[in-house]
Specification:
Length: 276
């Protein structure tokens, strides 16, 4: 492995709002175990009260506001870059535009700080098997390379590239599954003096972010409405046969499994809402 520059690339992870369903320290440990060029460390959280109220439509927080909070973080000087992870919806008014754009996955100031959101309005587009940790890892790599290059690398063409802007939000799933950086973006990174070892380390994280997790696949299978319905029906018939033989039918022994069968029926029309 190439010589590490870990001491020069400390990435501070900040919980923005203290309402994350995942543990950032677990994510940091995982990412640190995958490569040697970035060292991820969890910093003190920024409370929801410090974040204040949304700036736009009483729903969206502007990236400018959240970036400023990160820049003022008391541990800012300890890190090369800061990445704030939040549960809120984010947006901004892009340079040269007047309209506020809503529901970004992540955004940075292209200098030192970035904000990533796991709000379900956008995180739902991560695909059927990527965990929230993998989704965040993908976004982190994207923003860290942009910060390293000090250049906005996002582009509208070339679906599958890490830097594809995913104007159609559902394309995020393809980008995670492809886990690649197009040749044009690689050239731009090199021209911006982003080293090959940094790109290689980023690719190791990207490859992990697309890895299918057996736990999630098992959960999806077990909680799929069809599986629940069939399993509940099978057990109901089985218990009914046993109950008739031992005279417990009138004792209501079949009720719990009948409920399981009904639960599968009610899940059927909203399968997408039961994704892990």
């Amino acid at each position: 492995m190439a010589q590490s520059s870990r001491e020069n690339k400390i990435i501070g992870l900040v919980d923005l709002g203290e309402k994350l369903p995942i543990k950032l320290d677990h994510l940091a440990d995982r990412l640190n175990g995958l490569q040697d060029e970035f060292h991820f460390k969890v910093l003190d959280a920024i409370t929801e009260s410090c974040m204040g109220e949304p700036d736009h439509k009483d729903v969206f927080f502007s990236i400018e506001k959240l970036n400023e909070l990160l820049r003022k973080h008391r541990q800012r000087s300890e890190c090369t870059f800061l990445a704030g992870v939040t549960h809120v919806r984010i947006g901004c008014t892009l340079s040269g535009e007047t309209q506020f754009r809503e529901d970004f996955f992540s955004l940075s100031d292209i200098k030192s700080v970035a904000v990533l959101t796991i709000n379900k309005a956008v995180a739902c587009h991560r695909g059927p098997v990527a965990s929230l940790e993998q989704y965040l890892a993908h976004l982190l790599v994207c923003e860290l390379l942009i910060l390293s290059a000090r250049k906005d690398l996002c582009h509208p063409l070339g679906s599958g590239c890490l830097f594809h802007d995913c104007d159609e939000r559902s394309e995020m799933c393809t980008c995670i599954e492809e886990a690649m950086i197009c040749s044009g973006c690689r050239s731009k990174l090199e021209n911006c003096n982003v080293s090959k070892v940094v790109i290689d380390a980023s690719m190791r994280i990207l490859r992990w972010s697309k890895k299918r997790q057996l736990r999630i696949i098992a959960q999806q299978t077990l909680f799929h409405p069809v599986v629940t319905l069939v399993f509940g029906a099978f057990l109901s018939v089985l218990l009914y046969s046993m109950a008739v033989k031992i005279g417990l039918w009138q004792a209501g022994a079949i009720v719990p499994l009948a409920i399981l069968c009904v639960e599968g029926y009610h899940r059927w029309p909203c399968d997408k809402d039961h994704r892990p």
